[in-house]
Amino acid sequence: MIRYIYLLGIVFALFSCTSERQSAENAFVINYDEDAEFDWDAILQVEEVIPLETNDSCMLSYANNCVFGENRIVYNDSKQRALFVFDGKGKFLYQIDALGVGDKEYSIIKDVIVSRDKRNILLLDNTSILVFDLGTGVYRNRIALDKKLASSFYRFADGGNSRFYFWSVNPDNCLYVSDGGHLFAMKERRGFPFVCQKFYQDAAGKLNLISDCGQYSIETLSGDSVLPKYSFDFGRWAFPADEKAETVTEWEKIDEQPYFKSLLSAFETEDVLYVSTATPKKQLYCIAVQKSTSQVFCGNQSMDTPVVVISSDGTSFYGILYPSLFMEDSRMARLIKGYDVTEEDNPLLVKFKFDFGHFDTDIR
Question: Model-level pTM greater than 0.85?
């Protein structure tokens, strides 16, 4: 499991082969080619580059996640167990470093999001949600959670109007909802509870849930309902239906088998759905769906251009570029050099779109 968590934290990414589309609505067949790779340089349309300020008070390691608010970038640093907050141009503003047992402190950072109204940073620990002002970093309050279940929550999403969704490692249920303090189970567990990204908000503002291991689907959360949205068919490389894992030991045995195990992340704009997973060879594998044509582009990560896709808005995607990983003479490496960035500097954020025009003559 540690290998997958590390892979997700430093994902490199992108795709190359074209795939057929299933006849079912929003269901896609992935024709896995072990050698297919995609060249970021050929498909990346960069709109903006934001270097995160480097100084003695703000030296970043790899990100557990990175989220955006109103002119704010919140960087959840995996090594320092702290949050570093920048403005929209990458200037360092403040740090939230409150590891401890006090009323205004967190015991662990399980997940970090920006509230739906874009006013607050919400931090999930083992017992509660801590609320910090997004503009200033000042502690506001703590939202207590059910003591019996809170330790099983690892990802969460703000549904608005005091409603929160929680993804849980509970063996019985994978999804809970808290509505005004009333907590109840919303979906039964149907796969091994591997911890990775689980929620994302699409261009229309709807919350979506990524399935657990052994399944390859994305569902939309609508009130108290979980509705199917997208699914992926990996053919003979899919996790066998009769294979089950309920314990870590059982999972480790299955983890060595040559299957696609789980979707790792997903982000969506008005035009494109981006999904990452891990191949049977444990390489990062990325899938991009051009929604207007239903074409699917996929392939192994390009090691020369290790871009970490972290977020999206209505029209664009965002990625992290770690300068120390760009050692080849790629277009992305030259782009970084153009900002006078060295290996020791903080990462850059890049705002981009996928330019599928490069493939127009190859699509059948």
Answer: yes
